[in-house]
Model the fold of this input.
Amino acid sequence: MKKIAILTSGGDAPGMNAAIRAVVRTAIYSGLEVMGVQRGYSGLLNGELFAMDKTSVSDIIQRGGTILRTARCPEFKKEEVRQRAAKILKAYGVDALVVIGGDGSFMGAKLLSKLGIKTIGLPGTIDNDLAYTDFTIGFDTALNTVVDAINKIRDTSTSHERVSIIEVMGRDCGDIALHAGISGGAESIIVPEMKDFDKDALCRTILDGKNHGKMHNLIILSEGIGGAFELAKYVEELTGIETRATVLGHIQRGGSPSASDRVLASRLGAKAVEVLLSGETSKVIGIRDNKIIDQDIDEALAMESKFDEDLYRVAEILSR
Done:
């Protein structure tokens, strides 16, 4: 193997630049040439490839987003489109492709590997919704962004003696909501994995708190359930307590990556090159029990996410 390429795909996540940097510098250290692909699979199909060297990734480890840009590419699901992508990579002399993204990006890498291109996936998503790895690149930074917002909203919520409902990202995974709820001292955490959510029980808890002198209530709502404004209206009508909803949205994707995300991305990026040099393909890199692991893409994508119900029970106890 002489030349590899790297792209970022799907939603951006803080730490992607640190992963790009690690892949590029580890590859060059190992005697490989590196090409960057702009705008994910979409850019690949448009031939947006360029040579990268060590200076290409200077001064980026602290930057959020991705210097390679990213885009979604639904047409990549078509066999003929993937064949064209493989031909483009081969035309540039690329032997392997490193893909940084989530499950959809991994599926593209998996299918591309069947066309003679070695592929490796790195988990870049704030949602932390890839079951094979304990943490994904960007999750820790997004979590800290949410906690910072909670701290600010708590101040004004207490001043006005309000109920505050904060909707956070995560798609169908409640990890951001759960971890942020515990870190921010939320009274209630609503996640898609816990199907027995009862709006009336929530209102009773709020009223009980008020009767015991509680100054405010903070509720963290995962977007997998959504409807923060509708829930706020219901709570206010039933309890008579002023209730405000805040949807944090894409603020959670931005910002300088945390030290934890920078280290994780660096470890995963270096491992990706190591696995490619060993001759492996159609693999994903992750972290499990603080050890960097690699796993077959098929196995990784087939794993079912397991919500940490023990941690959720801790959250319930601490909120009482």
Observations:
- Residues 147 and 184 are 6 Å apart (CA to CA).
- The chain has eleven helices and eleven strands.
